[in-house]
Design brief:
The protein is of the alpha+beta class and 64 residues long. Helix content is 25%, strand content 23%. The protein is built from 2 helices and 5 strands. The protein has a 5-stranded mixed beta sheet. Helix 1 (9-15) crosses helix 2 (22-30). The longest helix is centred in the middle third of the chain and has 9 residues, at 22-30.
């Protein structure tokens, strides 16, 4: 799935239906289960940029 640049990590997880709520997105991020460009990201409010790749388990999002 693809999301638009400028959205936060939490918004992207909800938009892709990886997280059903903001609270669920927060837990995924805090538990270290979310990778951005291959590195663990612990900031739910991180703004995603064009070309970023977000991975949660088998799910993969591309920004752009």
């Amino acid at each position: 799935m693809q999301v638009s640049p400028g959205v936060t990590l939490g918004q992207a997880l909800k938009a892709a239906s990886i997280a059903g709520t903001g609270g669920e997105a927060k837990v995924l991020v805090q538990m270290g289960e979310v990778l951005v460009n291959g590195e663990v990201e612990t900031r739910r409010g991180r703004r995603l940029r064009e070309g970023d790749v977000v991975e949660v388990g088998e799910e993969r999002l591309e920004v752009g």
